Amino acid sequence: MNTKKILTIVLSALFLVGLLAGCGSTPVAKPSEKPTPAKSVIEEIKTRGKIKIGIFGDKPPFCFVDANGKNQGFDVFIAKRFAKDLLGDESKIDFVLLEPASRVEYLQTNKVDIVLANFTVTEERKQKVDFANPYMKVALGVVAPTSDHITK
Question: What is the mean predicted confidence (pLDDT) over 72-87?
């Protein structure tokens, strides 16, 4: 058999395979089976009737657990405003105490809807979670007596 004949047979077989693959059936959605869009997180919170907010429990005055076992602090105040704005009642919050190392994991696994805690924006974190604008800015510095003459 010459090479021209072999090439013709191989190309014909490939054409036939391609033609048969293209004739496969693709399931078509029936008009009554419209795909339902995924709920937004806000819609899920409203349906659930509670917002899950991750906070630290040991960072006064921002967030801490008081002597009566109640969450207190600036972050708690902001959380209550979210609940009131979203759900009409500042008590519709499930506070979830977390550690700094678990903040991203808790968001990714839906253990919390949002985290209210100090959370530095990094390129790595931006790949995993969304950041809102800061609701508070804190500046750190070195303080010493004037007699120490610290300049750097």
Answer: 96
Mean pLDDT check: name the lowest of 36-45, 73-82, 128-137: 36-45
In terms of DSSP H, where are the helices of 23-102? 41-48, 74-87
Is 70 exceeded by the pLDDT of residue 33?
Answer: no
Amino acid at 30: K
DSSP SS3 for 48:
helix
Mark 16-45 as b/e (b = at least 16 C-beta within 10 Å): eeeeeeeeeeeeeeeeeeeeeeeeeeeeeb
Cα separations (Å) of 117 from 26, 89, 120, 138, 151? 48, 22, 10, 12, 32
Q: What are phi and psi of 108, to 5 degrees?
A: -65, -30
Cα 63 to Cα 97: distance, rounded to the nearest angstrom: 10
CA–CA distance, 87 with 48 (Å, rounded to integer): 10
The Cα–Cα gap between 125 and 112 comes to 16
Kind plus residue range of the DSSP H or E element containing 107: helix 103-108
Question: From CA 141, how far away is CA 150, in angstroms rounded?
Answer: 12
Q: Identity (one letter) of the amino acid at 91?
A: S
